[in-house]
Design a protein that fits this description.
The chain is mainly alpha-helical. The chain has one domain (about 1-145). The protein has 6 helices and no strands. α3 runs antiparallel to α4 (about 70-95). It is globular and about 50 Å long. It binds zinc ion (2 copies). One zinc ion binds near residues 89, 93 and 115.
């Protein structure tokens, strides 16, 4: 039981690493055509970016349907990450829901402000804070936003606004 809970927790942490890298290098990379919808003004409840959440849901459900208890624990971790993402990112930060909870806890407030800073940058390049469960200190992000290091991110010069 404890082992399965530890596998669940490890999966959650691993998913944050996977999610951060996927957000930075896939969603702001080749997947930008889908993620772009999330960085622009929109009116509907759904956006093309939700495809990534759908993919996560399919992976989680597949793991929960297949395999033994270890695979189930991993599936629960993936599902848990998707739920936290939905609650925090869609609910608290972007307020896509009818009920609009405000972040009160310092940890949630930091995540909230960090994600708003992620959206401050127009276009796919030079953004900050790609995680959903962890955010660097706000002062660090402000410094980064003030001095975008395009070369270090593998972007050639000032990116065209797309
Ligand atoms: Zn983004
Ligand atoms: Zn967002």
């Amino acid at each position: 039981m404890i082992t399965h809970f530890l596998i669940f927790l490890t999966t959650l942490v691993a998913m944050e690493a996977v999610g951060t890298l996927a957000h930075k290098y896939i969603m702001h990379g080749p997947g930008w055509w889908l993620h772009r919808s999330h960085h622009e003004e929109h009116l509907g409840a759904l956006e093309a970016n939700d495809v990534f959440l759908l993919a996560l849901a399919i992976i989680a459900v597949s793991l929960l349907l297949l395999g033994g208890t270890v695979v189930h624990s991993i599936g629960a971790g993936v599902a848990g990450y998707g739920l936290i993402y939905m609650f925090f990112h869609d609910g608290i930060v972007h307020r896509h829901w009818p009920v609009r909870p405000s972040p009160r806890h310092p940890y949630l407030q930091r995540l909230y402000h960090a994600h708003l800073m992620h959206h401050k940058v127009k276009g796919r390049h030079n953004s900050v804070s790609f995680g959903f469960l962890y955010a660097p200190p706000i002062a660090t992000l402000e410094k980064k936003l003030a001095t975008p290091v395009a070369a270090a991110e593998g972007c050639a010069g000032p990116a065209p606004q797309r």
